[in-house]
Amino acid sequence: MEVAETLGGRGQYPMIRPCHAERIVLCIDACDDRLRYPGGPQGGKQFSTFGTIKKCAEAFLHNKSAMNPDHHFSLLTFKGNTCYMGPFNNKAHELVRQLQAMTPNASPDHPVPLSRVFDLVYDKVLKNEEEDEHMPLRIVLFYGRSGMCVMGENVLSRFKNVLVDILYIHRPVLSAKENKRVISNFSELQSCLSEKSFCFASLCESLLALQYTMNLLMHPNIRVPNVNARTE
Which residues on adjacent β-strands are paired with residue 214? Predict the structure, then answer.
């Protein structure tokens, strides 16, 4: 069990609050959005959103499992027009191996609407079960589409008691138009979330992406509302 310490005033003992084991669905965007710089100081360097997503998801699994081996994880991958969600288990090392073996598709012109991703979670997990307060559900979405974000209206209306976190990995922007699109995508993702959700955006191949991933480790019980959106 994870514990959170909150320091009291002078002469008071720290308060220990238990953080129950979680069931965490890791949603992996397995469509690679690549960019190769055409010369310049980074001449020929190739940037990959999927490569960064894999590193971040692996770091999340390793560290979250180390914090509490009773956490259970499920990998949900979406690419092209398909979505697949595996069973829950607490064997993080096996899920890391699955991630390492995963191959991406090229980013399509018309990506899977994220409503299909969340519909799959609802059908697989929430549709026929009662809420489990001793093992709450959380969804962590690693999203990597620089070109288009298809969130849809009221997509999270059935997830009122489920915390959804998002790490949005985008490729470098080469124009004001691309920058505007990335900001618009981030705003659309963020607007659907609750006040305790984390929503971060980071350039791919950036150490900041891993830093944001470490923030995602924070248990929902110890979060402070309304301070959880960051963009690079």
Answer: none
CB 178 within 8 A of CB 141: no
Q: How far apart are CA 185 and CA 132, in angstroms?
A: 32
pLDDT tens column, 125-137: 988 776 556 788 9
Encoding tokens for residue 155? 């997509």
Residue 169 CA to residue 205 CA, distance in Å, equals 9
Tell which residue, 48, 31, 23, has the closest CA to residue 205: 48
Gap between the terminal Cα atoms of the chain: 33
The domain covering 23-35+45-216 belongs, at the CATH homologous superfamily level, to: von Willebrand factor, type A domain (3.40.50.410)
In the numeric block, the tokens 């012109």 are attached to 109
Q: What is the Rg, in whole angstroms, of the alpha carbon atoms belonging to the chain? A: 18
Helical axes 92-101 vs 49-67, angle rounded to 10°: 170
Domains of the chain by residue range: 23-35+45-216
Neighbours of 97 (CB within 10 A): 12
Query: pLDDT digit string (tens) for 200-232?
Result: 988 877 789 999 999 999 988 888 765 555 555
> How far, in Å, are 71, 85, 155 from residue 114 at the CA level?
25, 14, 8
Residue 19 has φ and ψ, to the nearest 5°, of -120, 105
